[in-house]
Amino acid sequence: MQPVAVKALFAGTIFTSAFLLFLVQPLIAKQILPWFGGSAAVWSVCMVFFQLALLAGYAYADWITRRLAPRTQAKVHGVLLLASLAFLPVLADAAWKPAGSEEPTLRILGLLVATIGLPYFLLSTTGPLVQSWVTRTPWGAQVYRYFSLSNLASLAALLSYPVLIEPRSTVPQQAWAWSVGFVLFVLLCGATTFYVARRWPGAAPAPASDAAASVPSAKPRAVDQLLWLALPALGTWLLLAVTNHVTQNVAPVPFLWVLPLSVYLLSFILSFDSDRWYRRPIVLPLAAAMLVLGAYALQDSIGSALRTGLPIFVGGLFVLCLCLHGETARLRPGPEYLTRFYLMLSLGGALGGVLVGLGAPYVLPAFYELGIGLVLCALAAIVVWRHRRIGVLVSLALAAGCSWYLSEQVRDDTRARRLDRNFYGAMMVSDSGTEENDRVRRLYHGSTLHGEQYLSPENRRWPGSYYSKTSGVGRAIEAAPSGPRRVGVIGLGAGTLAAYGRPGDVYRIYEINQRVFDLADSEFSYLRDSDAHIDRVLGDARLALEREAPQGLDVLAVDAFTGDSVPAHLLTVQALDIYLRHLKPDGVIAFHVSNRYLKLDDVVTNIAQSRGLHALLVEDNPEAVDVERSIWMLVARDAQALQREPFRGAGTTPDPIRGVAPWTDDFNNLFSVLR
């Protein structure tokens, strides 16, 4: 085989593996998001799985290259490649759907292992394993450029999915297409292993290129190996911490998670492509400035505004990761220690992911991991600059400054009445107002308001925020028959809609997060003050409604779309069919579509038209200070149900939308409805 062909084979194998590695991440996450409430935390748990699988793959590559001869390596790897085909196609089994109240983290991890475990593991082994084989070739000195190539492929997959793939194909089509791509990868990787077995049948296990054989590389020092671990760990820590912060506290914008991950990958590409990209005299002062600016922004209003917070945190992530990964690249060892180097990088990435993705939601009451990460970066700089006094002093000063701003952030949060955090995100309860009659308590999920209540006894049963009597849902409840009403509510918030309850009414509330029930009981009084009977259903609303007998609802309020993690499975044709099964013939479904970044009323119009239903768009923009602007889409089988007195003159009939397919469980795309 000609050298050019061999180069192309090695490069093609690495590029294909990295592309598929990152392409399967949003693909599998999209499949399982509906089963776990569409929460952004699902993506964080998936990220932890991906990092742990990557660690396992790198450990395998390190072990196999050190212990086995190339021919044996090829045989073992070939058997695993063939075995991985049994996992195709990569479609999640519905048996993994949760029953309702169980802890989702372990279930998600088990689902991922059963669905993509071995294929993902083998994709993750490809980079270090094939690069270890590259070191035996005449062009082995260029081996780290293959690492840059793999990150370029990862970035290409990440950007192509929401723009090119998701809008043009259903989930099953994506899974089958990916599976075909994986078969192509198996063929490429199989050809590579066959070449290795034929080319170096009796070679020693450890890589031994010509250059390495004549000039053995020095054994890496213990402190260098520690930095191989610590610097990538901090990079992953910052990636997840910045993603959590900007999507929850800066702006609940869909797809915003793509930006941090893109700049993170770009920093890897630049750092390992060539030494010319990472220049200490330029990058280090920028990194120091971004450390201080980021720490300051966490406790100042500039950090929560979209126009200032987004460039500060995403730009800071790029500069800091370029510094972290650039310093890591400066410490890269000779070919003999290549797989160990990648193993430590992967271990560091997994460690950072576990601490932030799995640990922080259960240890920290709010999003403090970013501030802690900035302090840790400054402390790591002390180790990097341990031989230069000025570097140590500057690093200590940076750590002290970041620690001060972190303490200010914590002090500011202590003014809140309650902080709470778990798998589903961070919540805050705060009070405002000084006079007894105007004191208001509010519930926030990240930066999104989820309900408020007056604290004075005479006003506390007043439904405010998005749920006033002039809102779409308020009119729908008032328009229901005068007898005892049955009202379903998807998404509890502070429990405001229970204020409409009358004696004899039944309000059935579906909420996936037990902490929201706890806060509604302990911090707000809507539920206990309501004259209606309150039924509580814990778990994903759609899964619960699928299992239940028809409820005979007069009104079903679907209120789960105001944040960045829009549960698209609640806005599909199949979801609408489930809602209709629980609705009385003259009942009304009220969709809360007050989203600043998505035009979800078009989605509701589409699915309603697909089932021949009638719709009414009600925009409420009152002048009252205790009422938020709201947009509700009301859907009913019977046109007369939307012509009752409370609806007259209150809304408009949406125009038909032609040429756009309604959302289904297999095909839905938030990108198409961005405002």
Report on this model:
With 675 residues, this protein is α/β, with parallel strands linked by helices. The chain has 3 domains: 1-207, MFS general substrate transporter like domains (Growth Hormone, Chain: A), CATH 1.20.1250.20; 230-330 and 361-415, no CATH class; 464-673, Vaccinia Virus protein VP39 (Rossmann fold, 3-Layer(aba) Sandwich), CATH 3.40.50. It has helices at residues 3-32, 40-67, 70-84, 104-134, 143-165, 171-199, 210-214, 222-250, 258-273, 280-297, 306-330, 338-363, 369-384, 389-413, 472-479, 514-522, 526-529, 541-547, 573-581, 600-610; strands at residues 418-422, 425-432, 440-445, 448-454, 486-490, 506-511, 533-538, 553-558, 583-592, 614-620, 630-636. Mean pLDDT is 88; it is low at 208-215.
Summarize the structure.
This protein is of the alpha/beta class and 675 residues long. The chain has helices spanning 3-32, 40-67, 70-84, 104-134, 143-165, 171-199, 210-214, 222-250, 258-273, 280-297, 306-330, 338-363, 369-384, 389-413, 472-479, 514-522, 526-529, 541-547, 573-581, 600-610, and strands at residues 418-422, 425-432, 440-445, 448-454, 486-490, 506-511, 533-538, 553-558, 583-592, 614-620, 630-636.
Features:
about 675 residues; alpha/beta; Growth Hormone, Chain: A; Rossmann fold; about 55% helix; globular
Spatial strand order of the main sheet: 7-6-5-8-9-11-10
| Number of helical elements | 20
Number of domains: 3
Mean pLDDT equals 88
Helix content: 40-55%
Strand content: 5-15%
Uncertain residue segments: 208-215
C-alpha geometry: globular
Largest sheet: 7 strands, mixed
Gyration radius (Cα, Å) is 28 Å
Which CATH-level-2 architecture of the largest domain?
3-Layer(aba) Sandwich
CATH homology superfamily name of the largest domain: Vaccinia Virus protein VP39
Number of E-type strands:
11
> What distance separates the N and C termini?
54 Å
CATH topology of the largest domain, what is it called? Answer: Rossmann fold
Question: Which CATH class of the largest domain is shown?
Answer: Alpha Beta
Structural class: alpha/beta
